[in-house]
Amino acid sequence: GGVVKGGDVPKAGPGTLGIVAYQLKITAGFGTTLHLGGNFYYTESGKDYIYHFPNTDIMVLQNQGFCPNFSGASFSAESSFENGNSQNRAKPIDAPGYTKVIISQNSPNDDYYDIVNNTSADGTTNNTVSFKPNIHRVFGAWDIVGDHTNAANTSLGNLPVGPGTTGGYMLLVNANYNTGLCYFDTIKNVCPNTYYEFSAWVRNLCGQCGADLNGTTYGHDPGPGFNDKYHGVMPNLTFTINDIDYYSSGNIHYSGTWEKRGFIYKTGPSETSFVIGIKNNASGGDGNDWVLDDINLSTCYPNLIMNPNDTAVACAGYPITITDTVKSYYNNYGNYQWEASGDGGTTWFPVKISGGAVVPGVDPHIITPVLINGLYQYHVDAAFTPTAADSGFYFRLKVATTISNLTDINCSVDNSQKVFLKVLSSKCSVLTAKIVNFSGTVLNSKNILQWAVADKNTIKKYEVEKSVDGIHFTSVGVVDPKEGKGMEGYTFTDPENISTVNYYRLKLTNQDENVLSYSKTIMLYNKAVQFKISTTNPFKNNLKVNVFLPELGKVEMNLFDMYGKCLIKKSVQLGAGNSEVTFDNVSTLPSGMYILTVFHNGTEVQNKLIKSN
Asked: What pLDDT is attached to residue 489?
């Protein structure tokens, strides 16, 4: 051990400051829960003492970043802390170990909190007033800011409001010397097997905090990038689920802006409620003064895209296909059910395809999504032969994370476009040809399509259409009908080098070229990737990509954030064999998930990466 004497450095105000910190190197795998505890023994004035560290459970989590497509209001009762025309909100929150006070020139102090719409000491709204000494600023040092809710600029937040003016509230904390909970809430009515974004916006209030080893404070902000020991103790928060630590924000440096912190949590197979918490994870003293707002707990929903996206026109007694493409940030929305509505889309009922007809009935399906361009996707076809009585119905697809969730209105997703079915029963010039089988294979890096046709007398041509997203199709070739009688088989080879995933469909046109029909859509996936990549994952200050090419060629690399925005592009010429490509300018990227796409000779390879700070 060692000895600390009064008057020694480091100092905090008039006293001697001593901080004991411990760090663990964790080698456990993701999903492991660590149970931590212990004692600290010390002697003061000849008397022995024991400090019992609180027992803590920590989850080893691979953070997946935030949802780019989240939906729904926060489940948390204190998501934005309400609003009011008094600077201090009277109603307290559950903050174990903290006491609510009224903000003033020297309050709140360590271990205290307030809920305010203005962080000044006296209602002043001017954040340009001087610092120490100054009666308008708490301790002469804190920023004067407003809350974050519905701010036009999410980084700057809202301006503070004056006395008597209604403004949004935020949680203001002067953190305890010891780590511990400063907020918790019980979340109910959540869905099993579902990803939720648990996040909040936080702001370091004190760029003026800090002292050197002798306790000398600074009357100005040393500026960004200055040594943190002169910025005081950095706020550092831990987000908990059911009393288990899942995520640490890391040090929240003073930047004069709001910053979003949080992680993605997946509920268990039968989990419908849990308790969230936010802990102070740093010591108190000089610094660790912060505000928090917009606690968010939202569902990561998928996108559903119908084809056609408005009206499907069919002839009574002849086949038609309705298609839906499901795209999701995660791979858990692989359960689906078709639905129909006979009253314009007000009420819906489940349907199934039976004997080529659409009939009422529960008919859930399970499919495994495929990762394409950073999103998990799959394609669903409903091929049936409508009757005149089917005209006027709407159709849509419903998806969920489990079969049972399909019947729960709060745990299923039905946001695809509704398709109106118009069935013609008279004066309907139709194609009598029927596609008996339509399939494809990948051979020698080419897509080969096969199909057979019955009753082809009305066909003038088969046009092959191709898409990389399952929505937008272009023509890649035409095949003429054969003159023989009976069922005929056809083959078509796509002349282009394929990318990883392609969608195909057939457009059938009659002799007068005024009537057409489409086949179902199929997807071909090239599992035999022509080249390989490996990366450092997680990465930190630089990102190294190892590339193997079977031959000399050009390689294009794109690094996307979780919102699909391309951040960095690289184009390099590499030789055959193994090569290493380095992204040097990644140290300033925020922590979270990224998608790396690498293109070579028409083939794409993707990796999900985690940036760690």
From this structure: 86
